């Protein structure tokens, strides 16, 4: 395992004359802040908000997202519009560095990386990862999301699979994102033509569908 650097978050001001905000919480499927074709930027403009406050962080787990979300929640700093993208159950959590799956096969150099190797060898059980994932998201929906939907527009969706998770307190996008990325890889779409792992057309579709869910739930 080789740990990776987590880049600092930066807000993007779309219109300084508008006060509305939107934030994305998840992994690399909602992390593209640069390309204007990213559904993150498209949705913000369609909702006519002033600022995008947060972005997903590629390679992180749901526990990293929960940690960051709850910090904002406890400080009453959550954005007006909230898009949550749940990642894969098997991701490792660390509050300060990335421990991504694609780096598992790289040679470890420090104590943390070697500890990850031992954890993956002796203590990583996919069935328990799934159990904790399902229980964690459902608890989060029932105990946190349910109490903020009267003040915030919240949309929840899944990057890979729904894994049988039941969400009852906000609209949920009725498809996952990974099948589109898999199609793009099968079609050998160049990485520079993908934003959030999606093509320009796929990003537009996601932005339109999220806008409909937010507008419907408002």
- Mind describing the biggest β-sheet? 5 strands, mixed
- Class by alpha and beta content: alpha/beta
Number of helices: 6
Query: What is the N-to-C succession of helices and strands?
Result: EEEHEHEEHHEHH
N-end to C-end Cα span: 44 Å
Report the CATH architecture.
3-Layer(aba) Sandwich
Question: Strand order of the main beta sheet, please?
Answer: 2-4-3-5-7
Helix content percent band: 25-40%
The total number of structural domains is 1
Tell me the name of the CATH class. Alpha Beta
The CATH topology label is Rossmann fold
- Mean pLDDT across every amino acid position: 96
Uncertain runs: none
> Beta-strand level of the residues, as a percent range?
5-15%
**Quaternary form:** single chain
Report the C-alpha radius of gyration, rounded: 17 Å
Shape: globular
DSSP, total strands? 7
Question: Could you explain the architecture of this structure?
Answer:
This protein is an alpha/beta fold and 218 residues long. It has a single domain (9-99, 126-217), classed as Rossmann fold. The chain is 36% helix and 12% strand. The protein contains 6 helices and 7 strands; from the N terminus they run E-E-E-H-E-H-E-E-H-H-E-H-H. The chain has helices spanning 39-46, 62-74, 111-122, 126-143, 178-186, 200-217; strands at 4-5, 12-13, 21-25, 51-54, 81-86, 97-98, 153-158. Strands 2-4-3-5-7 form a 5-stranded mixed β-sheet, with helices on both faces. A two-stranded antiparallel sheet has the order 1-6. Strand 3 (21-25), helix 1 and strand 4 form a beta-alpha-beta unit. The relative contact order is 0.17.
